[in-house]
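quick one: 2-acetamido-2-deoxy-beta-D-glucopyranose bound model?
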Amino acid sequence: MAAAQRLRDCSRRALLCFVLVAAWEAASGQIRYVIPEEMERGSFVGNLAKDLGLDLKELSDGGVSIVTRGRTHYFALNDKSGHLNTLERLDREKLCGHVEQCLLNCEVILEEKMEIYALQVEITDINDNAPSFQEEEMELTISEAKAQGSRFRLEEAQDPDLGVNSLQGYQLSSSNHFSLDVQTAAEGAKYPELVLEKSLDRELQAVHDLILTATDGGDPVRSGTTQIRVVVLDANDNAPVFSQPLYEVTLMENVPQGATVVTVKATDLDEGINKEIKYSFGKTKNKLSHLFRLEDRTGEITLAEDLDYEESKHYQFEIEAHDGGDLVDLAKVVIAISDVNDNSPEMTVRSLIRSVPEDSPPGTVIALLNVHDQDSGENGEVTCSIPSSLPFQLKKSFENYYSLVTDRALDREQEAAYNITVTATDHGAPPLSTSATISLQILDTNDNPPRFEQAAYTGYVRENNPRGASILSLQASDPDWGENARVTYSLLLPLLPGGEGSESPVSSSISIHSESGAVYALRSFDYEQLRELRFQVQAQDGGSPPLSTNVSVTLWILDQNDNSPEILYPASRSDGSTGVELAPRSSEPGYLVTKVVAVDADSGQNAWLSYQLLKATEPGLFRVGLQSGEIRTARSVLDKDALKQSLVVLVKDNGQPPLSASVSVTVVLADSLPQILSELSSLSASAAAAAGGGGGAEPQPGLTLYLGIAVASVSGLFFSFLLGLLALRLRRWRNSPLLESGASGNFSGVPVSQFVGIDGVRAFLHSYSQEASLTAGSRKSQLHFPQPNYSNTLSSQKSCDLLYIGRCPVKTTPCFPTSFLLFGHFLIITVVYRDLILPEN
Ligand SMILES: *[C@@H]1O[C@H](CO)[C@@H](O)[C@H](O)[C@H]1NC(C)=O
Ligand SMILES: *[C@@H]1O[C@H](CO)[C@@H](O)[C@H](O)[C@H]1NC(C)=O
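yep, here:
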């Protein structure tokens, strides 16, 4: 129904419109009013009634309607006054926006008259709007790096008013950095632009607060503001800056790992990431990064490895500081390493001999040493030394080379090897040192002859020793080594004048073991032939050439009691009887009748003879001197004593066991020669009778006389012969160049045993020759006669004594010519032997 109503209504209107248009054309009236906007509701717009020429009555009938295109009714016709009033407050900006002429059209229909009038109401602008910004506050971020003159479009303000009432311009609060420029677009719109008049520096002022004011041209002028906050964006406009362009550090080379070397510091005025600084090594990085560690945030440089001054004395590198941007600063780090005496000297033995002969001359080079110290300066100066007690010397050859040479002669026998400790010390504080020991062997050279333990050796051997008996042992030592110390012994045989064929008595008597030095007897010695043996033994080492030492050895042959006493006087005849001694019957007790003379070839105790009466015809009449052998009367001869007394004297030596000999002596007791003769004749008759078995002739007195004369003349002849020989000999001595030492040596050198076997005679000859030499020597005072080498033995003194006693009968006692004769013979034989036989040897 509503639809049908609306359709009816619409058709009615359409009809009305058609009618109106036709009427308009017919009436063609148009009414126009102008009112300002924003009038109160009900405000007067125009007197429509009057303008249309309508009666108020007509109006009140309601035959007038106002048709508005669109639904909103802005105006209403007051029936009573016929005024057109506003139905509401009209806002031009709302109704027309920016349309220049804001027209509200409607029609006025006079229904009764069927007239239509166009009503046009123009709404004029008033300045009812202030310019306004969308935002009260706006923020603008501008990099401080923006160049001067840069423009920044600002939000424009809006003012919906028209014309002069709309936005007319902008103002900016005062600023050092900014100015405002208002641009007008082609369509006439104005928009503000902020112009950077002076470059920003965030570091100086980070925020700029500006006020932008927009004004219109109304009256009064309206304005709107907005606050512009310009935030200066940091641009990385500040490079990092190191606190120092150069960091200089001095480090001891023994600084431990991890120690801080230096901390570099760079600052950046920027902020944020632009302020964040990272440190890194510069171009030298690769070479050093193993040695130094750089903390990239803190700039702390620590030591990553041990330093070695000897490797590098200083380091130099660059450190870069990067900020968050690309800005970089460089600083140089110079690290000087100072030397610490951390290296001991090094010693190298370049060449070395391990052994040196002991006879090497001083200056022989043993070793060549090289010393080196990696430190520098004082720390690297090295001095080499060896203990001063050693016979070596260190010579500096050149630079760091030393040669170890011998300083003096070496002696292997004192020191066979050396450990030479060479010490190299540097001059650091504290000093460091190194030492090396060189072992040196001293080689032996044959520089020592064998040495006997004694200066001379004396050995003793009893005569009659077994063959091969060991006599003594020699010992020589040689301090050398090896072959040079191997000692062999040999006998040194004196060269005999006899020539090659003759053997020295030594070589046939003695032998020496070449290795042990033991001396053996090759034969049995006879003291009576050989009392001492002098020879030399040579000890020779095995060196090349060999060295030798001689030592003299004296071998004394010790006596054994192997000889019985030998009775010289009274001498036994071939038949065993002896001569007859005379004693006057009137002789006092103690009268020396005769003397038994005996010798013993032995010596010492073995030759100490004692005499004793073994048997006597008349016991008690005679006694024999125990030591002297003198036969003396023990009492006065009595008449009853028989004329002829037979005595047996025992001569005994003192050896162990003792040996002895006996002799029988016949003593005739008579006062005068005739008596003797008569006695003798009876004696010999009785003796003949005894020898011939009881029957015998009486001896002729004449015969006895002749016998005496013959004996005397023979003796005289012998004496003159003896004197002649003596004279001859004396003359020869005078002519000869005195007694040279050689001659005397010759004399004394003759083995005693070869000379005369009997001590007494030797002693006699000695005293004789001494007399002779003294007469010769009185003319030359420096002449000296060799000391007889036997005179100090007991046996020889004893023998001398014996001789004296033996001579006694010759001088003092009217002995029986026979004994005299015998003694004379003996002397002659001796002299002949001494003078004639010996010189020819
Ligand atoms: C040298 O040194 C060695 C090894 O230490 C040692 O066996 C030897 O006895 C020493 N020699 C001397 C002569 O000191
Ligand atoms: C040892 O004696 C021999 C022979 O008489 C001699 O040639 C040699 O030089 C002597 N040696 C010494 C060291 O005296």
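The chain has six domains: 2-124, 137-338, 346-443, 451-558, 566-669, 701-736+743-761+774-840.
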